[in-house]
TrEMBL record:
Cofactor: Mn(2+)
Gene from which this protein is expressed: psuG
Catalytic reaction list: D-ribose 5-phosphate + uracil = psi-UMP + H2O
Name listed for the protein in its UniProt record: Pseudouridine-5'-phosphate glycosidase
Annotated GO biological process: nucleobase catabolic process
EC class name: lyase
UniProt GO MF annotations: hydrolase activity, acting on glycosyl bonds; metal ion binding; pseudouridylate synthase activity
Length: 356
């Protein structure tokens, strides 16, 4: 079917295809043009050969976020989880691409040495938490860091990856009492999803957030929200956040059909949130959750923790105060999301975009 929505010339379907994210201008790119669109030669961007090959041949690729490994899980568990996530994506028939920045280069797909480095962050904080606004400074200054949902989505889209998996999205934080530090905190994850056409598989938004306001914000920004085999928007550690979902899907193929339809209709400037809950019998006990959250929030307030330190600090508090239960739930939900993302990536690969 003919389509005029895709104004990007060139035959490569693995290149990013949406106008709001043009590749950097030739003036800023001293390296010669890459012979292979899917593996851009750039001093600031490196695509792992296996990922480049998968993109070039139209196989499904799943981007995996690295902040959850470096800053969201304890050292010791994170390395094992990194392998488990990649293996889960492969078992679904797709190719994993864990994303992080090392010495000023954004890597799409990490080898074992780089996964080691990601999962043993130096104590001096030299492995930063990088959101989108931090990518330029980190790359330009030759620094290293893990990527959040926001920066993983941006980099994945840059090379043509259409789906990625995480644990819980960032969102609108609960408001601290005025005068106690940060009264206003909205994750950059939401702003990036508003302008990046990519499917994010997650367990909803973290229960430490203001979930109703986060959903309102996603609606304002025209981000599609799908519940995977659920009518309830999940709450990360909890299967049900208490909010509903606008749409329910039952199969990975439906998600692929939805993304392709958005592209065909010219309404794919924003992302798609595919929210998959933990099974109820695997969620964190809600009473334990609520008590831990109240204590954690109080601790953050008293210590004046604000900005990008809030999420890692609260996750760590949970891991220490739930007897390992929050860690178990976190690992299970990220793993399940990687598997579902793999299935969606395979369906997307089998449903190529209509060419213009
Ligand atoms: N999911 C997890 N653990 C995490 C995160 C997601 O299971 O640590 C991270 C993601 O990188 C997400 C970030 O982008 O938390 C949100 O941080 P902030 O609220 O500061 O935007
Ligand atoms: Mn924030």
């Amino acid at each position: 079917m003919p389509s005029r929505r895709d104004r990007r010339p060139g035959p490569s379907r693995s290149a990013p295809t949406h106008p709001p994210h043009p590749p950097r201008s030739p003036a800023r790119r001293p390296a010669p043009p890459s012979p292979q669109e899917s593996s851009p030669v750039s001093p600031a961007l490196h695509v792992h050969p296996e990922v480049a090959e998968a993109l070039a041949t139209g196989r499904g690729v799943v981007a995996l976020e690295s902040t959850l490994l470096a800053h969201g899980l304890p050292e010791g568990d994170n390395r094992r989880v990194a392998d488990e996530l990649e293996a889960t994506v492969r078992a679904a028939g797709a190719v994993p691409a864990t994303i992080a920045v090392f010495d000023g280069v954004a890597h799409i797909g990490l080898d074992a040495d780089r996964l080691d480095r990601l999962c043993t962050p130096p104590a001096d904080g030299a492995l930063r938490k990088l959101s989108v606004r931090d990518l330029g400074p980190a790359a330009g200054l030759g620094l290293s860091g893990a990527t959040t949902v926001a920066s993983t989505a941006a980099l994945a889209h840059r090379v043509g990856v259409e789906v990625f998996a995480t644990g819980g999205l960032g969102g609108v934080h609960r408001v601290f009492p005025v005068g106690s530090g940060a009264a206003f905190d909205i994750s950059a994850d939401l702003g990036v999803l508003a302008r990046t056409p990519i499917v994010v598989v997650c367990a909803g938004v973290k229960s430490i957030l203001d979930v109703p306001n986060t959903l309102e914000y996603l609606e304002t920004q025209s981000v599609a929200v799908l519940g995977y085999r659920t009518d309830a928007f999940p709450g990360f550690y909890l299967a049900d956040s208490g909010q509903g979902v606008p749409w329910r899907v039952e199969q990975p193929g439906e998600v692929a059909a939805i993304l392709r339809a958005q592209q065909e209709l010219g309404v794919a400037s924003a992302g798609v949130v595919l929210a998959q809950p933990l099974p109820v019998d695997r969620q964190l006990d809600p009473t334990l959750h609520d008590a831990t959250l109240a204590q954690g929030m109080e601790l953050l307030r008293s210590r004046g923790v604000v900005g990008k330190d809030v999420t890692p600090a609260l996750l760590e508090f949970f891991h220490h105060h739930t007897g390992g239960e929050s860690l178990r739930a976190n690992i299970e939900l990220v793993s399940a999301n990687a598997g579902l993302a793999g299935q969606v990536a395979v369906e997307l690969a089998a449903t190529p975009r209509a060419t213009p």
